[in-house]
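Methods: example folding runs. The two proteins below were folded one after another, and each record is reproduced exactly as written to the output file, sequence line first and structure-token line second.
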Amino acid sequence: MEGSFQCHYCAKPFSQKIHLDNHLSFHTGEKPYPCSQCSKSFVYKGSLKNHMVTHTEERPHQCRQCDKTFSYKNSLKYHMMTHSGEKPYQCSQCNKTFTINANLKRHFMTHSREKPYHCTQCSQTFSLHSILKRHLRIHTGEKPYHCRKCDKAFSQSHNLKSHMMAHAGDKPHQCLQCEKAFTQKYDLTIHQRTHTGEKPHKCSQCDKAFSNISNLIGHSRRHTGEKPYQCSQCDKAFSQNKGLNYHLKKHTGDKPHQCFQCEKAFTVKNELTIHQRTHTGEKPYKCSQCDKAFSQSSGLNYHLNKHTGEKPYPTAV
């Protein structure tokens, strides 16, 4: 009988038990088909079979806009969307769009009111077990995705993919207002907001707004006091992962990024880049409302407040 097998998580009906079992994996995060050559695992046997081809050297499908090659025609098709920016699958409940239907389906489940997966270390709840599993890495510090070319490791696979593109020097997404280029289109979108001043992510507890969602999440923790990123070498904790990473370098004293024009050295590359502008005079952050320009995005953001009349810091009385 059609629809006789029902998912007890979301009530979706299925005509066959095997289809229900496959669907349940999206809720539980179970991936029973592991790859024998790398750490990846898959929900479907067919997906594993397709993945195994990536370990062979055969990649007959080549992109005409860059040098990338692919094992499957479909993979090339999805890659081409990174050049065109095409995202044909739109969520009916919000404005998000996706390159593939599977990502839309996974996203759609986040709109479900039911969030049965609770984090035991904080108050957050999740609609999918796989999302909870990723979230727990914030508390444990686990980074299962290792780069084969250097000693870096990542908590999420997409961060490793972006990092690998940096090794290859592949930065297909270039800013039209300055010379910066990025491995991912999302990073370009965020960067472009430093030129436009756009801040679409608004805090629900105060009037602050941010150019990207991660900064909003970090800011929201100032209201809640949550600091999930704990230093393993002292009792300090941080609201954002980047704060912890920066702090850890103070324990090691490691300053690997050295200026070639003077003797100064820095813990992170971004600090070196900003410092080098004192030598070059470069000011890539231009105000869209006047002819002023700045060496740092923070300088531009502070300046834009003068145009809007916003006073981000309280005046002493």
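Second run, written to the same file directly after the first:
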Amino acid sequence: MVILSADRRKQRRNRRSILELDDSSRRRVRALISASRFVIQPTSDSIKAVETRLGPGSIPIDVAVTAGLGLDQTLAVTEVLASHGYEVTPHLSADHVKSPQHVSEVVRRLSRRGIKRVLVVEATGTDLRITTGAVVAQLAEHSEGLQIGVRLDPGDLSD
């Protein structure tokens, strides 16, 4: 514990303000920040935190999909933030998609709010009604101009 505390004090002393950096370092830090995305949980507390700490358009926001809260909650939070001017990308999982018709409804909800991106995450459940690949195919079929990202774990890729 003592060593950890000493390390923390040393880290605090070594922290510098962005204003103390040279121009090149300051540009690199700003580039890293501008290329970042925030990922939030789909809760009303997350909406409040985003609205109090970030201005619309300041940084892209991703809304995670969780087993406990489900896809509808993810879409609801996405819609609220989009209606307030935030660039929002919802995460979708086949675990939460009931049918191809459900995908069509998701696309309608997103297009009503002008949401142009989704991230499809790998399904983890064993009792799937629709596969991850089928979700991607349905999204592509039912949406024009929607950017569809797919997150795969590195272990899913073969040589």
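Comment on the second run: Strands lie at 38-40, 61-63, 88-93, 117-121, 147-151.
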